[in-house]
TrEMBL record:
It comes from Anabas testudineus (Climbing perch). This is Monoacylglycerol lipase ABHD2. Its EC number is 3.1.1.23, 3.1.1.6, 3.1.1.79. The keyword Transmembrane applies. It holds the Pfam family Abhydrolase_1. Residues 415-435 are annotated as: Disordered. Residues 425-435 have a biased composition (Polar residues). The active site is at S212, D345, H376. Residues 132-383 form the AB hydrolase-1 domain.
Length: 435
């Protein structure tokens, strides 16, 4: 046997071991990618709570254990903000109920028709009072979305009447009656719904709830006019971005795939606008050039600049974002306000979370809860793989609302009005709780 033959024989004997090593390296690489993408090493923790040390905040932290206990998402995928967000977007919720409501139509002064659905409570509230949840969904959403239906059904069973705004132009098969649809911060339709509820149920008190874009609308609505806070017990805002101008700037970045989410949301918004083309695009404010820009748009900012700002006559998209963002109105809210966000929400840049944190540090009626996981409107709970029908978000909103209702019920009559004016909250130093 020659030396060359001997080397080939030795090399051939080593091949199986080399292939086994390559297989192990490939498996290890795949597992590493899975662990990183699914964020499996991230520990679960209670929400980080920023608040002023007042009698009310102490009461809330005792009465709302979900705000101080660990939020535990499904083990295999729940620690990924992307998967939580995508699963919510594609599936909405698990075993979605179908609550039965009555649809209302309200003509507006400009010819538009506001629509909302009213769902009666399925039992008495624990306080014995008549309380209505007035709910504003996320962008392009309405009462038929599965996450809204799940929350409404749960609220009804806890004794709340629910009124859900259907964003103007969002409902399929409901035509617009004027050349205008919902926009980022227009509160007209929500105000019309709240006004109807107050007239139709003169004894009811209100709990205001907003999801994502709806969170901006409800906070702006409450801060626009002091009278809008009459008969309002509290407000809860979930997964909003607080400042449209700053949010849209971050939406152009590729970090956390926000540019991709922006592209997808822009496509959905474009289809919604074009489904009402005959009603919207024949107005004097929107011409052929705007339509061409709309077709070419790949971001929400481009759509807002070419079409949405013109519904309200703004001269620039910057002016539109500035005037329509709730960040300029929230300091005028005096009722208890809970702001909920998730650290791994791929749509909300971390810099935007400085807004609610600073607000909670300065205002005694504001509490800011930031979870480690949850994505955008996900907040699924579950042991390993399959999520539960109710989410952490659904349960914590009701827990907070119940606590506020009982707090208000137990206040002396002379203190109730002062509480709504923000006078009974004894301001001290700001605190932050984190797990």
């Amino acid at each position: 046997m020659t030396l060359e033959d001997s080397n080939m024989h030795t090399f051939g004997a080593e091949l199986p071991a080399m292939f086994d090593g390559m297989k192990l390296a490939a498996v290890a690489t795949v597992l590493y990618i899975i662990v990183r993408c699914l964020n499996l090493k991230s520990p679960t923790a209670p929400p980080e709570i920023t608040y002023q040390d007042t009698l009310l905040s102490r009461y809330l932290l005792k009465s709302c254990p979900m705000l101080t206990k660990e939020y535990i998402p499904p083990l295999l995928w729940g620690k990924s903000g992307h998967l939580q967000t995508v699963l919510y977007g594609k599936m909405g919720r698990v075993n979605t109920p179908t609550p039965c409501g009555v649809r209302k139509f309200l003509p507006m002064q400009d010819g538009a028709t506001a629509t909302f659905d009213v769902f009666e409570a399925l039992g008495g509230h624990s306080t014995g009072d008549d309380i209505t949840m007035v709910i504003c969904p996320g962008i392009g959403n309405h009462s038929e979305k599965s996450y809204i239906r799940t929350f409404v059904d749960y609220s009804q069973r806890q004794g709340y009447r629910c009124a859900v705004l259907n964003h103007l132009g969002a409902l399929p098969n409901v035509e617009l009656t004027s050349p205008r649809m919902f926009t980022y911060g227009c509160t007209w339709e929500f105000a019309a719904m709240v006004g109807y509820i107050k007239r139709a149920f003169p004894q009811t008190q209100l709990v205001v709830v907003g999801f994502s874009l709806g969170g901006n609308i409800v906070c702006k609505f409450l801060g626009e006019n002091r009278s809008n806070q009459e008969r309002v017990l509290c407000c809860v805002s979930v997964c909003q971005g607080y400042s449209a101008l700053r949010a849209q700037e971050t939406f152009l970045q590729w970090d956390q795939c926000r540019r991709f989410y922006n592209f997808v949301l822009a496509g959905n918004m474009k289809r919604l606008i074009l489904s009402h083309r005959s009603s919207l695009l024949n107005s004097s404010n929107i011409g052929d050039a705007d339509l061409s820009r709309l077709y070419a748009a790949t971001s929400l900012m481009q759509i807002d600049d070419s079409v949405m700002r013109k519904f309200h006559g703004y001269s620039s998209v910057k002016e539109y974002y500035k005037k329509e963002s709730c960040v300029h109105y929230m300091h005028k809210i005096t009722v208890p306000l809970l702001l909920l966000n998730s650290s791994d929400d791929p749509l909300i840049h971390q810099s935007l979370l400085a807004i609610p944190r600073a607000l909670a540090e300065k205002m005694p009626n504001v509490m800011f809860a930031l979870t480690q996981h949850g994505g955008h409107l996900g907040f699924f709970e579950g042991a390993v793989l399959f999520p539960q029908p109710l989410t952490w978000m659904d349960k914590v909103i009701i827990e907070y609302a119940d606590a506020i209702c009982h707090w208000e019920k137990n206040q002396p009559a002379c203190h109730r009005s002062s509480h709504r004016d923000g006078k009974c909250c004894q301001q001290s130093t700001g605190e932050t709780l984190s797990g």
